[in-house]
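Peptide/nickel transport system permease protein, pasting as requested.
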Amino acid sequence: MSVQPLKKENKANHVVVTNKVKPETTDSQVDDNFEISFWNKFKRNKIAVICGAYLILIVFCAVFAPFLTTYSPTQGELASRILPIGSEGHFLGTDEQGRDMWTRIIFGARLSLLAAFVPVLIGTMIGSILGIVSGYFGGRIETLIMRNLDIYYAFPAIILAIALAAVIGSGLGTIIISLSFIMIPPISRVAMSATKKVAHMEYIDAAKTSGAGHVKIMYYHIFPNVFSPIFVYASTLLGLSLLFASGLSFLGLGVEPPIAEWGFMLNSLKDLVIISPMITFTPGFFIFITALALNLFSDGIRDAMQEK
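Structure tokens follow.
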């Protein structure tokens, strides 16, 4: 009896593999995704949203001030001097010369906000250039730039601003110039630190290998990648700039009378603190609440731009 060997049939399993190729993400889609993510994070911060709404409102009142009041910000009526808050026709009262306080507040917001934003803008532009250049080249160039900027740290910022304003003379331009000087060093340090993190990355080396010049690399490859930390930090300086600008005006180093500006208004009303304290505190209240709103709004921007 013969035994035939069993034949085993190995059936190959036919597996069909499909490779799904994901479409490439374009730069515009990345920007859209960032904007959506930023807004979703920001709107969850209710305090920052409220502060942003207040800032929009105060800017709107400052821009359209002539259409929001029928009174002059510089001329008043002596018969209506020191009217209390809630008076008929003057819901924020009047000052020592009979000028409507609401009118003075919204017209004064123009110069106060201008004196807060422009120095930060100028300081950001100059500080970013110095910081990026020093962080990109390093070595002696970094030492030369940063050690000279370190001189400013030898003096308190407000003392330095007062000294510069006293030398230049009073006026709105004086405030802007003096505050711009004290904004440059800290912004330069942030820009330099951010630049050092990206200056030796592969895409920077690739740009150098391709023959791109230093200016082109710093402008097209480094600046877009360090803009976020510079912008976030600069936004935190707006509230401080408003306080410094108001302080210089309070000391008589700002605008000249009878121009309306919050710091100068606080100075001119200080003698009424016993007679009418609420009128005296009105410009101070707007300085405080606006500086607070700027700080909380910048905190909301910082938190929304942070990557988790």
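Note for the archive: DSSP finds ten helices and no strands in the chain.
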